[in-house]
Amino acid sequence: MPVPPSHRGDLSEDLLVRRQRAAAGGGRAKVDALRASGRRTARERIEALLDEDSFVEVDSFVTHRNDEFNLHMHLVEGDGVVCGHGTVDGRQIFCFAQDFSVFGGSMGEMHALKIAKIAEMSERARIPLVGIWDGGGQRAQDGVHSLAGTGELLDRLVACSGRIPMFSLILGPVVGVSALAAGLADFVILGQDHGQLFLSSPLETEETVSGELTPQELGGADLHASRSGIACLIAVDEDDATEIVSELLTFLPDYCMAEPPVFESSDDPERSCDSLEDLIPDDTNHPYDIRKVIGEVVDDGHFMELFETYADNIIVGFSRLEGSTVGIVANQPKVLAGCLDIDASIKAARFIRTCDCYNIPILTIVDVPGFLPGTVQEWGGIIRHGAKLLYAYAEATVPKMTVVTRKAYGGAYLAMSCKHLRSDYNIAWPTGELAVMGAEGAVNIIHRKQLKEADNPAETHKELVSEYKRKFGDPYVAARNGWLDDVIEPIDTRIRLVRALRLLRSKREWTPPKKHGNIPL
Q: Phi/psi at 282 (nearest 5 deg)?
């Protein structure tokens, strides 16, 4: 039988009331308190992230199913997380935002299953996933049910990894297993003022309980940007966080089998890099800023650096050549002379694997005197961590281009995308030095007996260093053996890289079938 018009009106009114309850979150008092703290509501954050009127909500009527602790009297539509899909600058994404006004944003069973469902939908649709995190960890009242839901969520996020780009915006405190879930994203962005990540609650951390550290010092944005290396970027406010996601998306494809977007560039692909002519100091031990090389080579000098304050002896980030995305890895001679250490190896290896997941060519700019020596590094596992970097380069099948500007010594030369690891296009400037080690160190080892017996050790040492440099202190030995494709003038760097990338865009590399490699984690 058809529904009478009067009854249809009642149903519509009931639907409207339910939607209003879902939109109300934890109630006016809690929403006002949230805004007073300088944070937005979950819905306001999603509105700021997405294009106007593009958001379509999913599972707005889901509630928890816990009758313990009188929670049956506190049913809130949505269960503390807003999920759905929309567009960012016209590109489709799935997204979710935790609502701190509902149970402090804590993750109950249904809360977790809602996010797991949206992650699964995102993977099936093959479009990016953006999560806005602001919650106090797993809901204690839900007990193991909360952990079960969170476990399903973690499984879905791992399934998404490497298939679709994932972003985590940390705009409030995120505690416990929720922090692990947020950390699975390709890009973790923390809000400067309110973003905090803790695996153990500050209330359980002795230094915080005693007052030795504040929660911000224990797990705040600056800590995770400079010491733990979890945060790839810091947002000055919530608007900045959404702008960062918007810009990152312009460098990335929708999913792993797609190509990154290509933009029209007004920067002449045949432009000379005149400022690079005199960049390398005459003294080979004198530092310079590798960012000047990057800025001169890439389109319009635009470089989006990631992990800027973590392991700053190596630089990683996104840029473009002739409108096409490239991932850049570069040693920084200004910091530790550009030596590779544990943190730098981990930072670069993770970035290389991210680029390889999403079909982004890798440009490596090399000026590396070696791995950082010392007991801290050796005991800390520099062998294992350095092997991660070498492994990541060898495993990557995207186009790989390498420019040696000055030093490329020893194992660090091999680990920085050398020709022997199947890099596609390797060039050097005339100032390049490819050798087992620096001339002075090599002479001290090779000629130690001769130096000990010399009448004038200083003069003999100087002569031997000069001879070693003549034999090995230039790029032509490597070029003669085919380990460099060319030696070029610095001013031609952009031209040569653009031309190489045009040829390499269609690169395909066959690998023998296997489940996966065993990277030295």
A: -65, -40
Judged by DSSP in three states, 43 sits in: helix
Query: How does DSSP assign 337-363, residue by residue?
Result: GG-B-HHHHHHHHHHHHHHHHTT--EE
CA 466 – CA 458 distance, rounded (Å): 12
Helix, strand, coil abundance in the chain, percent, nearest 5: 45, 20, 35
* Integer Cα distance of 270 and 278 in angstroms: 20
Q: Which two tokens stand for residue 520?
A: 């030295």
Rounded CA-CA distance 490/510 in Å is 33
Compute the distance between CA of residue 215 and CA of residue 431 in angstroms, rounded to an integer. 48
Q: In the beta sheet, which residues pair with residue 321?
A: 324
CA 46 to chain centre: 22
**Are residues 276 and 293 in contact, defined by beta-carbon separation less than 8 angstroms?**
yes
* Helix, coil or strand: residue 272: coil
Dihedral sign computed on CA atoms, order 105, 109, 110, 112: positive
In this prediction, residues 259-284 reach a mean pLDDT of 94
Question: How does pLDDT run across 92-103, given as a tens digit for each residue?
Answer: 999 999 999 887
Q: What is the token pair recorded at 398?
A: 């995207």
Q: Are 344 and 337 in contact (CB under 8 A)?
A: no
How, if at all, do strands 233-235 and 314-321 pair?
A: unpaired
Q: Does residue 429 contact residue 404 with C-beta atoms inside 8 Å?
A: yes
DSSP letters spanning 252-310: S-SSTTSPPPB----S-TT---GGGTT-S-SSTT----HHHHHHHHSGGG--EEESTTS
Distance, CA of 19 to CA of 61 (rounded, Å): 8
Residues recorded for the chain? 521
> Which residues, at least 6 apart from 441, have a Cβ–Cβ distance to it below 8 Å?
none
Residue 472 has a pLDDT of 74
How far CA 372 is from CA of 19, 169, 383, 420, in Å, comes to 59, 34, 11, 22
- Whole-number mean pLDDT of the chain? 91
Q: What is the DSSP letter of 4?
A: P
Amino acid at 293: V
Please state the rounded mean pLDDT for residues 36-52. 93
Find out whether 460 and 443 touch, Cβ atoms under 8 Å.
no
What does each C-alpha distance from 282 to 278, 279, 285, 431, 458 come to in angstroms? 9, 9, 9, 9, 22
Name every residue whose Cβ is closer than 8 Å to that of residue 381 and which is 6 or more positions away in sequence: 342
E strands in 369-424? 400-409
DSSP codes of every residue in 68-96: GGGGGG---TTTTEEEEEEEETTEEEEEE
Q: Report helix angle 290-297 to 493-504, nearest 10.
A: 60
Expressed in angstroms, the distance from the first to the final Cα of the chain is: 65
Helix/strand/coil for 445: helix
- Model pTM greater than 0.85? yes
Separation of alpha carbons 79 and 66, rounded Å: 11
Q: Find residue 362's DSSP bridge partners.
A: 327, 400
